[in-house]
Amino acid sequence: MITLVNARIIGLEKLQQIYINPHGIIEKINPTLEEIGEIIDLKGDWISLGGVDLQINGALGKAFPELTEADNFVLEDICNFLWKQGIDGFLPTLVTTSVENIQRSLKIIDQYIKQHPQTNIQTAKILGVHLEGPFLNVEKRGAHAAEYLLRPSLEAIEDILGNYTHLVKIVTLAPELDLNGEVIKYLHHQGIIVSLGHSLASVEEAKKAFAWGASMVTHAFNAMPPLHHRKPGLLAEAIVNKNVYCGLIADGRHVSPTMIDLLLRASHYEQGIFLISDALAPIGLDDGFYPWDSRQIEVKEGTARLMNGTLAGTTLPLFKGVENLVRWGLCEPEIAIALATESPRKAINLRGIEIGQTAKLLRWHLSEASKRLTWERLNLNTL
Fold this sequence. Notes:
The chain is an alpha/beta fold. The chain folds into two domains: about 1-45 and about 355-375; about 50-345, Metal-dependent hydrolases (TIM Barrel), CATH 3.20.20. Helix content is about 25%, strand content about 25%.
């Protein structure tokens, strides 16, 4: 038995003691100290599960829509890399491409999961797939390839999902293109989360989509109408709907810190917001020029743009957003940590830190001198 003492845990006011049994399972969490087994004093640092990234487009130079049959080892390398970045689980994200490419990538990811049960605790787990497209509004496509965009229909979504409905966890689409909601309703019935994004949806169209079963917004503020006092639009409707989660990129380039502050205040901080990296394939590599489907992107100081200047994404890790929120003074460390660990789990109905959960734990420390938040994985010799 290992006992972690004087730990701060998200949602609990007092310092807590965490009791971990020899099987690496959290057996008890309470403020009362019982000196059992090996004692590790956390001295008031925060404890959390690892991060969950619900939108990441690739890593180590490999984009997920470009996977081939030879890429099993690449997926393994990516899972190991993300584990070292503090990530417990992630959704490989397939941006708009041909149906053939989507099907091939789904097949390879599905094979990898079946061949790698991922019982090894020292690697990030593939939790499913996020399809970001191809049912997007051409006027808000951003870096998505226009030639592969499709109008939503039951026939099109069945062709895209094929035999991999079980694998797809999130589909991003523009609701104004799904006029009667048949695709949103179908996906919701299949247990797939519908996320609204790359869209010009009005508040009325967003409201209908949420009533039909959509429950998420893809990278809030980006690729959608701005907040407007007479035309509130998609994001405003999402903010006031307590059943909707919004993904957020907190790199300082995609969204101004001032607008992030506004969003967090409007959403009561931990309610309905989760951080994503939206990282592109060059994450883990140096700045420079890299292929992006048939085009090219330039990565500079963690930001990726097409050659015409269009913002394509980032190569910064998920936890950079956590550090930024604290450094910018937008929220307390506990909330920033929750936005990358607890909130994304809630958004896809996974368990957070609790009794019975496997103790894959991170320790977070705030330096009083520099106000910098840092993290490390706890090496528990029972695991």
